[in-house]
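Example record for the data management plan.
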Amino acid sequence: QALKQHKKGLMQQLFPAEGETTPRLRFPEFREAGAWEVKLLGGICNVLQGYGFPERLQGRQGGKYPFCKVSDITSAVNENGGHVVTAANYADEDIVAELRAKPIPVGATIFAKIGEALRLNKRAIVDVECLVDNNVAGLKAKTSAAVDYFIFLLSQNVDLNKHCGGAVPSVNKSTIEAIKVLAPEPPEQQKIAHCLSSLDEVIGLESHKLDALKNLKKGLMQQLFPQDVA
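Corresponding structural encoding:
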């Protein structure tokens, strides 16, 4: 938990505060690089669309592609540091062909684009090629314009609630593309991404150690206390 708080604090230092154009903490080689530039998300990312996922195609427990719903994004954020590696449903090439779907590439950021889930502003990054349903949108960095992991971090500072309308909150492709963000040049993006992804790896290792210790304690308690008696 302390490491997660440290990461949150570091992110706040490495990204400009609201109303500012430079971060409070900057790597030495970029201190003279000037202010971050205002860019449109559509200028540095490709916005990816999801596909309708008919119930008759749902329920496969394995296959080539995880088929991610909003619930899978929530699970990735809550249980796996925001990294998507599995889903409750899977699809093979036959489903891809039937839906005329294009898989989401590794490194893309995905998030809910409609309903109450949008309000929660949860972001996940794709570690395996997958499909997403039509309640989900994605962002993939444009080559030479942005870095995938930086986009994942940057997107966490974008409040979609400020860009949606209607009785049911929602955003579409053109709305997402028109969102203005502050971003530095790719070399500085890469440095920020490397710093925070390295911290993610440490958090992941510590989390696995904690889980192992919890299981050890559970097993030890079962050994130290008598079993239920009739």
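Summary line stored alongside the record: The first helix runs from residue 2 to 14.
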